[in-house]
Amino acid sequence: MKRPPLLTASNLAKAFGSDPLFQELSFGLEAGEQLGLIGPNGTGKSTLLKILVGLEPPDEGEVIATKGLVIAYVAQAEAFTPGQTAKEHLSQALPHLEEAELEALMSSAGFTRFDQPLEALSGGYKKRLQILKALGLGPDLLLLDEPTNHLDLKSREILLNALKRFEGTVVLVSHDRHFLHALTEKVYEVSHNQIIIYPGNYDYYVNKKQKN
């Protein structure tokens, strides 16, 4: 018997003023799938992620999650508390982890110093810290909004390898074609206020678009 979706979006609509971002969006997210959410800027992809995680209400429709679903969300940018070290910040977000576990987690993401103040970290290391916090929550569903922005090649590869090991469901908003190709198995395109589902990887999506 097929399991129900982890999360179901039903007839979602959102507008800013008189300008609709999307309307009547309905879809389900299955356990273990990795999908790319793509479309031109301004079509509401980031807003849709915020609605799915509960940070913003839809104008219409509803989001129904399975009982006990753990969702982690990585925004494009995060405000960090000045004066904290990277390790202190991670410890505050993941209090269930012991010191040795925190350091092992940070080492896996390429951190060689744990006492660096957050303001001294590069954009790439701050993004790695965001991802570590999200994965450390043990989520069933991971929502990522442009996670490769401002990352160098090494940081992108570290992030990609971490996500490939992740066994939960991933929804990735990105314009990074290499990242989409390497990770996603299904593509949701936000187009003309609707979602078009492509039941294949990013290459499948590109081929379908070229034939249309």
Give a verbal description of the structure.
- This protein is α/β, with parallel strands linked by helices.
- It is built from 7 helices and 9 strands; from the N terminus they run βββαββαααβαβαββα.
- β6, α5 and β7 form a beta-alpha-beta unit.
Structure characteristics:
globular; 6-stranded mixed sheet; 27% strand; 212 residues; alpha/beta; 3-stranded antiparallel sheet
Q: Could you name the ranges where pLDDT drops below 50 across 5 or more consecutive residues?
A: none
Give the biggest beta sheet.
6 strands, mixed
**Strand-and-helix sequence, N→C?**
EEEHEEHHHEHEHEEH
The strands making up the biggest β-sheet line up spatially as: 5-6-7-3-8-9
- Which geometry do the CA atoms define? globular
Mean pLDDT: 89
Question: How much of the polypeptide forms β-strand, as a percent range?
Answer: 25-35%
CATH superfamily placement: P-loop containing nucleotide triphosphate hydrolases
Helical run tally: 7
Distance linking N and C termini: 36 Å
The top-level CATH class is Alpha Beta
Going by CATH, the architecture would be: 3-Layer(aba) Sandwich
Helix proportion range:
25-40%
Remind me, CATH topology?
Rossmann fold
- Overall radius of gyration: 18 Å
Architecture blueprint of SSEs:
Layout: E1 7-16, E2 19-29, E3 34-38, H1 45-53, E4 60-65, E5 71-74, H2 86-93, H3 99-108, H4 123-136, E6 141-145, H5 153-165, E7 169-173, H6 177-183, E8 186-191, E9 194-198, H7 202-211
Parallel strand pairs: 3-7, 3-8, 5-6, 6-7
Antiparallel strand pairs: 1-2, 1-4, 8-9
